[in-house]
Protein: Alpha/beta hydrolase
Organism: Helicobacter fennelliae MRY12-0050
Amino acid sequence: MWRCFEYLYKPIFVFPPCFLPLTQILQSTQNLNYIQSHALNAQCLDSVDLDSHLDSLDSMQNLDSPNKVQHIVIFIGGFMDSIHQCVFKNFLSFRAKGAIKLYSTYDSTQLWVQLLPRIYPLRYSLTIIAHSWGANNIIKALCAIDSNHIRALITLDPVGRNAIHRPQGIEFWENLYIQDHLKHLNRPNISALIGGARKSIPLADSNTALCAPFHHASIREMLRHSKAFDTLITQDSLKHDNPESTSSLLK
């Protein structure tokens, strides 16, 4: 039981073509080769052993395909996302051609500090979507990295009581937050108040307030109000079959 909980609590899932814990990714530089592969006829793997699949993934890297990966979209959950899966459910439902999507829990700060500098040289367009305490921690991680290459950072109702700084190398930082948590005093909003809801962040390029009935766990609604999610993620390599609205990416 504990192993199952631990696996849920500290993973990074990668689609396509596989999912595996981040510690497995960090074991070898060679394992980053899967990021350079695309989804052409690839199946989601149910094993953490990637080595046996490296040859087939490497052979797909040079194929000319509309599904070739050009963008990486990272979803980072909040403090209780391992249980409530507010961000994780949106991560699962997100679909975009030419993109790899990753998910991690809020407590992966040091792991991102190690992994992101190894992803940057691959020159993929990178978007990070982080909620609550996960947003606070990814900001810490990015500030600990000397040189970032992030196309868009989207923070969703971030919390925290520590001082924050704007990380270097962020092209566009959009912050979406709940205007008044007290007006809709449910469990998610109470959690945000306890954690220290940051609301508007002057360091961000854009701040958008959402009012009741939206609340701290209204991830899908916050993304539908996000200019960065709509204009940055859906353009270029992330054209969806029906790209007219952001909601088409969140089936």
Residues 1-11, 15-63, 236-248 have pLDDT under 50 and may be disordered.
